[in-house]
Amino acid sequence: MILTTSPLLLTSSLAAAVGYLVLAAGHRALGARVTQGVLALTWFLHGASLLIYWVESPGRFGFASAMSVTAWMVSTIYGIETQLQPKLRARWTLAALGAAAILLNLLYPGTVHPRLPSIWLPLHWALGIASYGLIGAAVFHALLLRRADDAMRNAHAEDGQLPVLALERLMFQFVTAGFIFLTATLVAGAGFAEVLYGSGWRWDHKTIFSLLAWLSLGTLLGARWRLGWRGKRAARLLYASAGLLLMGYVGTRFVLEVLLNRA
């Protein structure tokens, strides 16, 4: 549902979206220092827009909000990593997705929950969004890994590029962290189902997709540990897991909010 947006929220959101688009369009022409500066400013504006969003409409949340927070978290992780790993270069896809998430959040700001059924619900949301952000970071690294691997196989490796093994290690570190947070999300949802929803465990689309994502990520980590899975095989299972996780909340809420126009 598209709602009227305050001038402050509209300005900060559009400024952040423009910043991401500048990074996406000019990532090759901008120097390293300029890129870092634009990324830092865009990250700040994106975070400010999210803060304004929640201050102006407490309890409002939806599929686009989840995507926007996830994009901001991935940008945060990337910004930290570029300080620790200067060879990790900016990618236009990350910036383009950030801009898209911000604009979607302006168009579809979600629904208001005026009375939270429990003080545990924000914790449940926070754990879930953290798992989204970490798995999103893992997918981003999987894409970088595929590109680096293809370049190496075709003898077109870029100078100063982060080694393939380093990218792979980072990818699995984020998968592990995301799996831990997703496990905590499911445990919180099961443990507090009565106070959160007024009933026991609910076998709805969100629960089923989240459990399938959890099983898929667990299989990936188990196969990595026991069978040494890596490369394209591991990346494919990661993409499938991320898709299932995305369907768990974002996909379900998209259908309700946009296709069915229901809260």
Question: Secondary-structure map with pairings?
Answer:
Blueprint: H1 7-26, H2 32-56, E1 60-61, H3 63-84, H4 92-107, E2 111-112, H5 121-153, H6 164-191, H7 193-197, H8 205-227, H9 231-259
Antiparallel strand pairs: 1-2
Give Rg in angstroms.
19 Å
Structural class: mainly alpha
Number of strands: 2
Number of discrete domains: 1
Name the helicity range.
Answer: over 70%
Query: What series of H and E elements makes up the topology?
Result: HHEHHEHHHHH
Low-confidence stretches: none
The major sheet is characterized as:
2 strands, antiparallel
Distance between the termini: 9 Å
Q: Give the mean pLDDT.
A: 80
- The spatial strand order of the largest sheet comes to 1-2
- The coarse overall form would be flat
- Put simply, the count of helices is 9
- Share of residues in strands: under 5%
Describe the structure.
The structure is a single chain. This protein is mostly helical. The chain has one domain (7-259). 76% of the residues lie in helices and 2% in strands. The model has no long low-confidence stretch (mean pLDDT 80).
Give a short summary of the structure.
The protein has 263 residues and is mainly alpha-helical.
Keywords:
single chain; 263 residues; mainly alpha; two-stranded antiparallel ribbon; 9 helices; flat
